[in-house]
Design a protein that fits this description.
Blueprint (H helix, E strand, L loop, with lengths): L25 E2 L9 E8 L2 E7 L13 E8 L2 E6 L6 E4 L5 E12 L9 E3 L3 E8 L7 E3 L12 E3 L5 E4 L8 E5 L5 E8 L3 E2 L6 E13 L7 E8 L2 E9 L4 E9 L7 E12 L3 E15 L3 E7 L5 E6 L14 E9 L6 E7 L4 E4 L7 E11 L5 E6 L3 E5 L11 E3 L6 E5 L5 E7 L4 E7 L3 E3 L6 E8 L4 E8 L2
Parallel strand pairs: 1-8
Antiparallel strand pairs: 2-3, 3-6, 4-5, 4-7, 7-8, 7-9, 10-21, 11-14, 12-13, 13-21, 14-20, 15-20, 16-19, 16-21, 17-18, 17-20, 22-23, 23-26, 24-25, 24-27, 27-28, 27-29, 30-31, 31-34, 32-33, 32-35, 35-36
């Protein structure tokens, strides 16, 4: 049980105001009518228990005259009427996962207040909130290995019908299946998951995977299985399969549009004219999960201080409003050539989109990629997606009076000439993978490339005062 203001949208829609939601025969009050007092809500999963105390007359301290009962509002809509003024509790049962707003008014006989035959309501006590939240998180995985529908809280519309679990068959065994017996005419039975929670992950794509097989009997095309998802109080169809002949096991994959920051369910609806036309539908290895969106448009540059500056854009989200975006964190990964693996060099929280790496070695090669992740409502990381790799970043250095070094020709086939060096220097030729393939130290004016394969190279020349990098193409 949590008594909190909801961080996301209510599962119930705010439809009407209290001033306009009055039952038939109830008039708006013309005098002050004390409301109930001490309204509280306690909950245990799908049950919310509301308690309150009787109104109190502010002058006498007693229960006001003419008290008839109470009205319970859920999300500003009349939900239940209590006809006994001594009844001070209401149980709201079978709730869907979500956030609920409650208020309670007192109902009075207005004969005591000069309006015989009329009733009226007080102002509401409340509002007060109940958050029936998920105690589970994606991914949802159902291999049927427990041999039970109740283990992961599967349910059925209107009843279970011919849905069952076959322990001796599956992909691998066991599997859920809808079978032909007992005979059913003009039937419709849905097997559905418990409510799935997205916890406000707006920057993600949700999907459903499962394995499906049909063992057909008469190939009439009149029996069908529809795969659905339930969102915003409506069942939406993903695909429909017909009994047009037996089909072996096939892996099915579907995106679930519009479920980010929503509560949803998955359903398998078996319908048809006569179940005797069918053998069995088999549904196995159900998997529901999501992929976070990666950071967008990564780019890099070297600044005048010899640092590497990385920039990127936040992931594309279902709701672009900055105030409603979920919590973010980001990680910076770097590979320093000739190292062969990436290392995480920084982790940050928030919505930063710039990172300056000041720990680089001038003249060296680096690869980077950026990981962008999301936090759940309890501020725990739930996923991380990665940008494209920024490859072969060459780091330069700032120099007060740099010497102009000229390298030619490019493309080169046999030699490259270096002009401008008058002191000892180290020249390194680096391939596109960051490997040093040629190195020379001294007062260098020429390098042989005739033994190198055709391709793109970088010439790094390092003196006591500066490092310069030039792009070279070797071509035969």
């Amino acid at each position: 049980m949590k008594l909190i203001l909801p961080p996301f949208s209510f599962i119930c829609i705010l439809l009407l105001s209290f001033s306009s939601v009055l039952s038939a025969g109830t008039t708006k009050k013309s005098v002050y009518l004390p409301p109930p007092t001490n309204l509280q809500v306690m909950g245990l999963e799908d049950v919310a228990m509301l308690t309150w105390e009787k109104p109190v007359d502010t002058l006498s301290g007693n229960t006001p005259a003419g008290l008839l009962g109470y009205k319970v509002y859920r999300c500003d809509v009349l939900h239940h009427s209590v006809g006994d003024p001594d009844s001070l509790v209401f149980y709201d049962v079978s709730l869907e996962v979500g956030y609920y707003k409650y208020a309670v008014t007192a109902v009075y006989d207005m004969s005591y207040y000069g309006s015989p035959g009329d009733t009226s309501e007080s102002d509401p006590a409340g509002p007060i909130y109940y958050n029936y939240y998920c105690s589970w998180k994606l991914p949802f995985i159902e291999p049927w290995d427990q041999g039970s529908f109740t283990f992961q809280e599967w349910s059925f519309d209107p009843v279970q019908g011919n849905w069952g679990i076959l322990m001796t068959y599956g992909n691998p065994a066991p599997t859920a299946y809808f079978h032909s017996a007992p005979d059913q005419s003009n039937y419709s039975y849905r097997m559905k998951t418990l409510t799935q929670c997205t916890y406000g992950y707006l920057c993600a794509d949700y999907y459903l995977d499962f394995d499906l097989k049909l063992k057909d009997s008469l190939m009439t095309g009149t029996e069908k299985l529809t795969v659905q998802f339930y969102r915003d109080s409506i069942w939406h169809d993903l695909a429909t399969y017909y009994n047009n002949g037996s089909q072996d096991w096939a892996a099915e994959h579907f995106n679930l549009p519009g479920v980010a920051d929503k509560f949803f369910k998955i359903g398998f609806l078996a319908e048809g004219v006569d179940s005797r036309n069918l053998g069995s539908w088999y549904v196995d290895n159900i998997y529901i999960d999501f992929n976070c969106h990666p950071p967008r448009d990564p780019e890099q540059e070297s600044d005048s201080a010899g640092n590497v500056v990385l920039r990127w854009r936040l992931p594309e989200c279902a709701d672009p409003s900055p105030d409603t975006l979920p919590g973010f964190f980001y990680d910076i990964y770097r590979c320093h050539h000739p190292w062969t693996s990436f290392q995480k060099i920084f982790s940050g929280a928030g919505k930063d989109t710039v990172f300056v790496d000041s720990t680089v070695v001038p003249g060296d090669f680096y690869d980077y990629f950026i990981g962008e992740g999301q936090l759940d409502i309890e501020h725990f990381p739930v996923c991380e997606a990665y940008s494209d790799t920024l490859k072969n970043i060459l780091v330069g250095t700032a120099s007060v009076n740099p010497v102009k070094i000229v390298v030619f020709p490019s493309p080169a086939s046999a030699f490259i000439s270096i002009r401008g060096l008058s002191t000892v220097a180290t020249a390194e030729l680096i391939n596109s993978s960051g490997q040093v393939v040629l190195q020379s130290t001294g007062v260098i004016d020429k390098l042989s490339v005739q033994d190198l394969p055709t391709g793109l190279y970088f010439l790094r020349v390092t003196t006591e005062k500066q490092t310069v990098v030039r792009k070279i193409i070797v071509q035969r």
